[in-house]
C-alpha cells in the first residue's frame, strides 16, 4: 500500500506550530546559532536578591533546559519529515529503504524507520 505524503503534511505542520509555541513558552531562539533554541534566562533581579532565590532560578533554568532539549529534538524531527515530503523521500525507512507502514506513520508522522527497525 502506497502512502500519501501530503496526507501527513497537515499533521506535521500543525505539530510544528504547536512545538514552536511550546518552545517560545520556555525558551528563545539562539541568536548565535540559527535553528537552535536556548532556555529563557532567569530574571536577573531575582537571581541577585538572595541565595535561595538564586538557587530557585538555577533550578528553574535547568528544568527549562531539559524541556527545551526535548521539544527541540521533536521539532527537528518534524522539520526533517517536512523536508522529506518536499523532496519526495517521505515514508521511506532510513535503514532498509522500504516503505514505512502507514499505521506507524499515523502514530508518528515523523518516523524515519519501519517497524522492523524501530529503535
Task: Write a short abstract of this structure.
The chain has 119 residues and is mainly alpha-helical. It has helices at residues 5-26, 44-47, 51-86, 102-107; strands spanning 27-29, 37-39.
Q: Can you offer a commentary on this structure?
A:
This protein has 119 residues and is mostly helical. 57% of the residues lie in helices and 5% in strands. The protein has four helices and two strands, in the order H-E-E-H-H-H. The chain has helices at residues 5-26, 44-47, 51-86, 102-107, and strands at 27-29, 37-39. It has a two-stranded antiparallel sheet. Strand 1 (27-29) and strand 2 form a beta hairpin. The longest helix is centred in the middle third of the chain and has 36 residues, at 51-86.
Q: Let me know the largest β-sheet.
A: 2 strands, antiparallel
What's the β-strand tally?
2
Gyration radius over CA: 19 Å
What is the chain-wise order of helices and strands? HEEHHH
Contiguous uncertain segments of 5+ residues: none
| Chain-averaged pLDDT | 88
Strand content: 5-15%
Strand arrangement, major sheet: 1-2
Number of helices: 4
What's the N-to-C terminus distance? 23 Å
The gross shape turns out to be elongated
Percent helix, as a range, is 55-70%
Structural class: mainly alpha
Secondary structure layout:
Blueprint: H1 5-26, E1 27-29, E2 37-39, H2 44-47, H3 51-86, H4 102-107
Antiparallel strand pairs: 1-2
Helix pairs in contact: 1-3
Amino acid at each position: 500500500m502506497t502512502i500519501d505524503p501530503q496526507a501527513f503534511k497537515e499533521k506535521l505542520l500543525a505539530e510544528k506550530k504547536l512545538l514552536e509555541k511550546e518552545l517560545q513558552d520556555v525558551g528563545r531562539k539562539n541568536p548565535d546559532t540559527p535553528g537552535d533554541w536556548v532556555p529563557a534566562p532567569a530574571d536577573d533581579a531575582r537571581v541577585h536578591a538572595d541565595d535561595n532565590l538564586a538557587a530557585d532560578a538555577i533550578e528553574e533554568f535547568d528544568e527549562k533546559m531539559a524541556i527545551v532539549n526535548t521539544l527541540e529534538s521533536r521539532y527537528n524531527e518534524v522539520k526533517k519529515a517536512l523536508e522529506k515530503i518536499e523532496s519526495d523521500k517521505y515514508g521511506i525507512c532510513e535503514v532498509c529503504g522500504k516503505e514505512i507502514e502507514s499505521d506507524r506513520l499515523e502514530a508518528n508522522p515523523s518516523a524515519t524507520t519501519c517497524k522492523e527497525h524501530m529503535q
